[in-house]
Design brief:
Blueprint: E1 2-6, H1 10-18, E2 22-33, H2 41-55, E3 58-62, H3 68-78, H4 94-99, E4 106-111, E5 120-126, E6 133-140, H5 149-163, E7 168-174, H6 178-186, E8 190-199
Parallel strand pairs: 6-7
Antiparallel strand pairs: 1-8, 2-7, 2-8, 3-4, 4-5, 5-6
Helix pairs in contact: 2-5
Length: 208
């Protein structure tokens, strides 16, 4: 049996633990508030350009339906070794991955020149019922990590969300993924509400 719980609800966690639900994973919340003082579009654009140049890539917006195979190829190569739900060594199901991309998502690809296969990807989407946008996924292909590409994608995502009218860009990341946590901090994102993933082994035969 599994459950998720906001990580600011300590009483709720204590209640769950009374019934043998234990924390299996923690996702840290992050937020970049575009309404905060000092945030401006020009500065975001300069940061995005500088980050891409430093990483040696160009970041462009992909056409979700026309470039679906190209996008999924990059997602598959960028998921290797990431802390995915369940077994971290599971095979990536690209059909399922496509279902997680909303039709109104903005997909950004990081490519070198000449572009053959995308080296990194981030997916952001407006959140229904709120002015915030959400980062669904960010990943860089194995062999190209550690070169600032995630930072370039993050900067470009902030720029796109701001241009799209978002009041903020929010996301969640596993607390074990120090590389993306470091990227978020460098991008100026601030800690936000995250969540615990809890699990209870019902095979023990114990019930409430």
């Amino acid at each position: 049996m599994t459950s998720t719980l906001r990580d600011d609800l300590d009483r709720g966690r204590r209640f769950a633990e009374r019934y043998d639900l234990n924390v299996a994973a923690h996702s840290v919340g992050w937020r970049f508030d575009f309404t905060a003082p000092g945030v401006d579009l020009v500065a975001l654009a300069v940061r995005a350009t500088s980050a891409a140049n430093a990483a040696g890539v160009r970041v462009r917006r992909a056409r979700l339906h026309r470039e679906q195979d190209h996008i999924l190829d990059c997602m598959g190569r960028s998921m290797a070794g990431l802390p995915l739900p369940g077994d971290r060594y599971q095979q990536v199901d690209l059909t399922q991955a496509r279902r997680t991309i909303p039709d109104d998502a903005v997909v950004l690809l990081a490519e070198n020149r000449p572009a053959e296969r995308a080296l990194g990807i981030t997916i952001i989407t407006p959140q229904a019922g709120t002015p915030d946008w959400y980062t669904n996924y960010t990943g860089v292909a194995v062999g190209h990590r550690g070169r600032g590409m995630a930072g370039a994608l993050k900067a470009a995502a902030l720029l796109q969300a701001h241009r799209g009218g978002a009041s903020a860009l929010v996301t969640h990341n596993a607390d074990t993924n120090e590389a993306i946590l470091r990227t978020n901090r460098r991008a100026g994102m601030k800690p936000n509400v995250g969540y615990w993933s809890l699990i209870r082994d019902t095979r023990s035969g114990k019930w409430f």
